[in-house]
Structure formats: C-alpha cells, structure tokens
Specification:
alpha/beta, seven-stranded mixed β-sheet, 16 strands, Metallo-beta-lactamase, Chain A, 10 helices, 309 residues
C-alpha cells in the first residue's frame, strides 16, 4: 500500500508546494488509486506521478475550501478523454454534488464514463469492497472531515506443524482448512479449519484528516492507526494564528498522533510563509512530541507495510 503526496501546501500553490491532494494506491489484486482532495493543479501533479487518471476509482473530499476542490472539475473532464468505461465515485460533505454538477454544466463538460457523487455525514461508515471508511467531523471554518481507511483483515497463519504431526501431507486439504472449512479424512477423522489457523491478522489503518484545529475527534478517529496524515499550517509559536484561522501547528499535529497511539505521523498543508530552510525546525518541533514524524513534500511517497500480527 502506497501513499503519494501530490500537493502539500496550504491555501495557495507556491513554487515548491502545490495545494492539497494525496493518492492512496491499494495493494494487489486491484491496485486501485483513491484520491484524497483535489486542489488546483492536481492533474498536473499526477503527470509526474506513477498514476494515470483512469486508474483513479474513488475521490474523497475533506471539505469545500478551494484549495481542496478547485482542481476537481478539470480532473473529471480530462479523465473523460482517457476512458469511457472506468467508473468513478466521489464522496464528500454536503454541497460537493452541487459544486461538481454546476461546474460541469456551466462549462459544457460531458463525461463519457459513469460518475456517482455521494454526500456523506460525519460518523458515517462506508463499506467499499470489504474496505471500511469511517468519517469524523473535525474543527474547521467549513465542515471538514477526517477519513479512516481500514484494510480488511488477512487470514491467520495455517499451523502446518500441527497438521504434520497428524501425518497430513501438504495439498488441497491445507488450503481448505486455511479457508476455515471442515474436512473429513478417508479414515473418518474430522478436521475443523479454525482449529488449525491462527487468529486473523488485522489490516492496515490510514487516517487522512482535512483542515482542523486540534480536536478530540481527530484523536479518536486515529486511535491505533498505522499512519496519520495531519495538517500543520503553522509553526508552534503561531498557535494563536492557528486557532484564529481554524488550523493546527506542528506540535498540535504531533499531540494528536501521540494521544491516538499512531505508529507514524506525516505533517502536510504547510503554509507558504515557510521556506525549505525552515523545514528542519518545523520537523524538530513535532518530533519533540512525536518522534516518528515526517514533514511531507510534494511527490513524497510512503509505503505502509503489512502488519505481522
């Protein structure tokens, strides 16, 4: 599973950071790409990424501020030049359907592929091909969502050593037992699959937050997550600015990760007031609270390894 940052800036694009967008590539067998937010210029960023427009199957919008949605009409239109068959679904807060429909209608944009738009409510849980997507309402000037993406659990390890003690050779029986089936042997013995399989291995959890102040909803959504993506528009010393503009600081993002017991934190949505020479100081502020922190930059890509148990 790969998370790829297409835009990591706040409010407006700069020479070094485009505005908000990130792509999550699911593992085999589908390797679908899910896009989270779509600020202006996202499709240009995609041209320098490993992903094509037609491979994007779902788009999740955190909130309706322009730096998170102004790239959406153009991306939807460009995708139509590439495919007439690959379906696309867009999810987001109330108002997203009106924004898309009016932008396409006024611009005379015709989509050849099937598009569905679903407006979702805070706390709503989506089940998408055995993946679970949970939403939470954050603390921002507009309704802003966080998304928790939970991978389905994998079957536990087949306890081969126990089967070998029973003189059962490798073969189709092993596969049936691993799937939880009951197998009757030639001598009449009955083997129950669950008796020979370790407990299921939990899937990975990724939490991607929209713009927000520090809030308990973010902590609760991120509990035990393998990866948390949190905004850090301001440095720690500008906490008053962050509160006034409904944003977070580097330290506040780190506090959420620490309180949630997350495994890794990636800070994004960095104000254009900060230059590359400032990044080490921003990162140090967060790492003082939560050491396993990365400061995102455009085209950063991070693998999320499978859990071993």
């Amino acid at each position: 599973m790969l998370l790829y940052f297409l835009g990591t800036g706040a409010g407006r694009p700069s020479l070094t950071r485009n505005v908000a967008a990130a792509a999550l590539q699911l593992p085999e067998p589908t390797r679908e790409v899910w896009l989270f937010d779509c600020g202006e210029g996202t499709q240009h960023q995609l041209l320098s990424s490993p992903f094509s427009l037609q491979k994007i199957a779902r788009i999740f919008i955190t909130h309706l501020h322009g730096d998170h949605i102004f790239g959406l009409p153009g991306l939807l239109g460009s995708r139509s030049f590439l495919t007439a068959e690959a379906e696309l679904a867009v999810y987001g807060p109330p108002g997203i359907e009106r924004f898309i429909r009016e932008a396409l209608t006024v611009s005379g944009t015709h989509l050849r592929y099937p598009l569905t738009v679903e407006e979702i409510e805070p706390g709503q849980r989506l089940c998408l091909d055995s993946w679970s997507i949970t939403t939470a309402l954050l603390d921002h000037a507009l309704p802003s969502y966080g998304y928790r993406i939970d991978e389905p659990a994998r079957p536990g390890r087949l306890r081969v050593e126990e089967l070998q003690k029973l003189n059962i050779p490798p073969g189709p029986i092993y596969g049936r037992l691993k799937q939880g089936e009951t197998v009757v042997l030639d001598d009449g013995s009955v083997l129950h699959g669950p008796d020979f399989v370790d407990p299921p291995i939990p899937g990975r959890s990724i939490v991607i937050l929209g713009d927000t102040r520090y809030c308990r909803a973010a902590v609760e959504l991120a509990l035990g997550a393998d990866l948390l993506v949190h905004e850090a528009t301001f440095a720690a010393e500008l906490a008053d600015n962050a509160a006034a503009y409904h944003h977070s600081t580097t330290v506040q993002g780190a506090q959420v990760a620490a309180e949630a017991g997350a495994e890794k934190l990636i800070l994004t949505h960095i104000s254009s007031r900060y230059r590359p020479e400032d990044y080490d100081a921003l990162l140090a502020q967060a790492r003082a609270v939560f050491p396993n922190t990365i400061l995102a930059e455009d085209h950063l890509h991070v693998e999320i390894p499978k859990r071993k148990s």
